[in-house]
Amino acid sequence: MNQINTEPEKYLLNEDLQxxxxxxxLGTLAGGIAHDxxxxxxxxxxxxxxxxxxxxxxxxxxxxxxxxxxxxxMASIVRQMLNFTHRNIGLSLINISELIKETLIVIxxxxxxxxxxxxxxxxxxxxxxxxxxVLQQALLNICYNAVxxxxxxxxxxxxxxxVFIVNDQPPPFEKGTYILVEVSDTGIGIKxxxxxxxxxxxxxxxxxxxxxxxxxxxxVVWHNIKSHNxxxxxxxxxxxxxxxxxxxxxxxxxGKIQDLKQE
Length: 263
Prior knowledge:
This protein has six helices and ten strands, in the order βααβαββαββααββββ. By secondary structure, it is α+β, with helices and mostly antiparallel strands. It has a single domain, classed as Heat Shock Protein 90 (2-Layer Sandwich), CATH 3.30.565.10. A hairpin with a 5-residue loop joins β7 (about 230-235) and β8. The radius of gyration is 21 Å and the shape is globular.
């Protein structure tokens, strides 16, 4: 089992704590805006439905359809915003090793052939308490972002292991055993000036259109991991790839992290 206590890692965790506090504020703001938008869109879609029944002109009907599609696209974005501010998710015991193996089946069938996949997943059962659908969606989002960073092909690496957090780690960690999921790529990397912004709502380096994303994918990932009392960090250098590290507390018994033997 690996022990995290190096100075560079502690520096990154302190930096991520400040980022987490900022994200909590942004999440609250985004949630309030999303609720207001949702109410307005509901009214707009209602009136459009009335217009569709009253309108008999073909050209006007097509224009109304385009307006309706635009409203539905905005409604989809609002739903994503509401999802990452909603924390009441159903929890059950999950073998994270099996969840990742199941997710890999989906990934292998949906990514370009030029992407090589390397995995290191232990045979032992690593149990967490969480929502399998939420965690699988987070993992898929991270992997698809990694694939997009390798337009000319490359290697996608997924490693799973136990790590032990020592006493002097800053919040949000407490001492104990965690499951670490590392997703790495050999892609274009992330520029230092934007690394601390990639989880912010609507921040994206891609055009804001339906085919290429809304800028909410990694924001949803961040909130999904936080809803499991987890933590996510990013290490990246331009043209040298990116590594996402997701820490999830191992299943707790009577309020305490299981005392697993260090390997």
